[in-house]
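JOB MANIFEST
job_type = single_chain_structure
chain_count = 1
residues = 304
[input]
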Amino acid sequence: MSSLINTLTTIRTTEQKMLVVGLHVGIIQSILDFDAMLGKATPSVSAIVVGNRKVVKFFFGGKEILIPCFPSIALVPKEMSTEINFLLNLQSGRRVKETTTQFFETFSHALGAHLFAENVPENHALELKEQFPDKCIAGPSGVGLLVPGHLKLGAIGGVTPPQIVGSALLTPGNVAVISTSGGMVGELIRSLANAGRRMSFAACVGGERFPISSYTDFFLLAEADPETKGVLYYGELGGEDEYEIAELIKNGFFTKPLVAYVAGTVDESFPERTQFGHARALAQNKSESARAKRDVLKAAGAVA
C-alpha cells in the first residue's frame, strides 16, 4: 500500500515519462494531446519499442515531433533509463508477461505499468502479480490509469481532444473513479465531469479474472490519498471483489463515501448462467450475481 500511495504522490509532484511497447497511434497521440493541453514542455512518451522503425511522427500541440523507436527494451539507451517511470504495454496477450518482466528488470526504479491486451494467459497474470507486488499495474484488459493534470497512461478518458476537454482530464479534483470496465470508466469520468465534479485519480482495474493491482489495492489507495474524498465505482457480475470491498468498509480500512453500481442483473432473465464481455463477467453461483453483490455493498454502507 505504501508503494502505491508513494506512486500517486510522485506522479503529482514530478514529471513522469513512459516507454511504450507496441504501436497504437491513436492511444499514443491521445497521451501527447493530454500533455500538450497541460502545457508540458516535453511529451511524456520517451520512446517506443517497435520493430523496423527508427522514429514515428506525431503531433505535440501545434508542431510535429519524432518519437524514437527501438527494436527491443534492451536497446533503449541508458541515458533514458533514469527518466522512464512507466510502461504502456500495447502488445498482444501472450507477449505481455515477457515484455513487462523485461521492463521492470531493466527499469527497476519504475513505478508502474498499464497492460492493454485482453486474453493474457491466467498463469502469466498471476506470475506478474507475484513478481511485482509493489508496482502499480493497471490491467490486463483495460484502458489504463489517469491522474488528472499529471498523467494519462493509456486510452483512459478518451482519445480525442474534445473527449479530453469534455471529460475534465486536465483539472484535478477529489473523487476517485475505479472500474472493471474500460468502456464504463470513460462513462463514469464523463458523468462526473457533467455533474461539475473532478477526479483525484481514475483506475481501470481490467476485465480479466486476475488483475495485477487489485480492487483492494486501489480502494486502499483512495483511502490513503488525502486528495480523494470519495469513490465512484463500477463492477460487474462474477467474482467476489465486492465482498472484499465490503469487508474493507466493515473493518474500517475504507471509510470514505462510496457510490457503486454492479452491472449484470439481466443475467437473472436467462435460464442458464451467461458469459458477458469480460473473462470475469460470469456468475458461477448466486453469491456472484450482480444483485447479491449490490446488496452486500449496500449492507456495508455504500450507495449502491
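[summary]
The longest helix spans residues 25-38.
The mean pLDDT is 92.
exit_status = 0
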